[in-house]
Design brief:
- It is a single chain.
- The protein is an alpha+beta fold and 487 residues long.
- The chain folds into three domains: 284 residues, no CATH class; 113 residues, no CATH class; 66 residues, Arc Repressor Mutant, subunit A (Orthogonal Bundle), CATH 1.10.10.410.
- It is 39% helix and 20% strand.
- It has 15 helices and 16 strands.
- A nine-stranded mixed β-sheet has the order 2-6-7-10-1-11-12-13-14. Strands 5-4-15 form a three-stranded antiparallel β-sheet, with no helix packed on it. It has a two-stranded antiparallel ribbon with strand order 3-16.
- Strand 13 and strand 14 form a beta hairpin.
- The longest helix is centred in the middle third of the chain and has 20 residues.
- GO terms for molecular function: ATP binding; glutaminyl-tRNA synthase (glutamine-hydrolyzing) activity.
Length: 487
Amino acid sequence: MLETSKYEAVIGLEVHAQLKTNTKIFCGCSTKFGSSPNSNVCPVCLGHPGSLPVLNKKVVEFTVLMGLATNCRINEKSIFARKNYFYPDLPKNYQISQYEEPICEHGFITIEKKDGSHKKIGITRIHMEEDAGKSIHDFGDYTMIDLNRTGTPLMEIVSEPDLRSSEEAYLYLTKLKQILTYLDICDGNMEEGSLRCDANISIRLKGEKKFGTKVEVKNMNSFRNVEKAIEKEIERQIDLIEDGKQIIQQTLLWNADLEDLFPMRTKEEAHDYRYFPDPDLMPVVVNEDWKIELEKSLPELPDEKRNRFIEEYKLPIYDADILTSSINLADYYEKILRVTNDYKSASNWVMTEVLKIVNEQKIEIKEFKITPENLGELINLINNKIISHKIAKDVFNEMLTSNKSPNEIVKEKNLTQISDSSELEKEIDKILDANPKDVQDYLSGKEKVIGFFVGQIMKATKGKANPQTVNELLKQKLDSKKTFNNV
């Protein structure tokens, strides 16, 4: 087994987020996913001679919002550059991006690790660029090109090399996705390519200041694959060093099926792309007034919402973390609270029953059948002692298959909880008379047997008996028998 504790990894991530604009970055073509191949194209995104790009203002606004949300400096002036490279699926054969003068720089986000410690991860830059098209290799000896994605607006977020493990990379990515979706500027869907990540990985001896030779890893289509690929590459580099071999600067592709890395090409340097300012696009100017206007439009961000949930609703940190993990889940929870003020019960129902169904059915919370208002109503029915918690589970399951409110279901099925003492006493007497041995066990000091009686009464009343009332009446009757026997 290799001695790995003497090494540390140095990891930087380049994240590409596809922005949720209706049209492309430099033309009016639709960005709709899933359209027929090569249907959302025009002379501009096809790179026809004489066509000129016009910048989509929404792309600038979205990028500035992300910069503000990640503590970046927003540069008053930024410029577009041409990145020259052979792109089989980008007809111009260059990509319009930003290089020397990006729109956002020098930010950070904070991640919380499993051990409860916090770490600040620096963000070098956030810039705007256009996406390339898609090469499809499912046609035997041929590759087909779909140019619908060409010109789709991208935001590239480049981290500082501050990450030291696959766990930190996973947490950083999760936090970025959370912010992007809270801002509603990217849907964060890695499987559809809306969020893509490349990792630059090197290793060095602990305590060493100089960076090792970095290797880029691409083609990771889920957060877990990012984690696995980074771990695999760290192991590979340690093996090479331990065997006295050199690490080559190159780009590797991650194969998720084989869970292995394969060489793609030797890694290019910035000068290989021959960047130069794009002559067809003016500098982007974000003055102070525009920046302040955008700052005012920022929503409540994940960390703020989490802290508010803890403070305002007195929720445990664990609950708040889960409920604010996505903006839609947080909204669902708060809509429940418009109906009920039982914050903890609402949290419990969402984290157990609701998320169980959401995960089983692999749906988004927006697609969940039960409205938050109806779930709040169900919680009130329990708290007002109209139905028991057991009956509430049955009502919940009924709500999953119908559009009825919990009140309607309770009335239709006559599920109202029995709290009337005289009615419950009759049932208790029947159960006690039918189980004399268990009664004697209780009188002999085996008080746990009371749970058996409660279960029998709940069964006899089809779960409609008020458990608290049943417990009180049972204890009274059994204790009176105990007193009678002692006389």
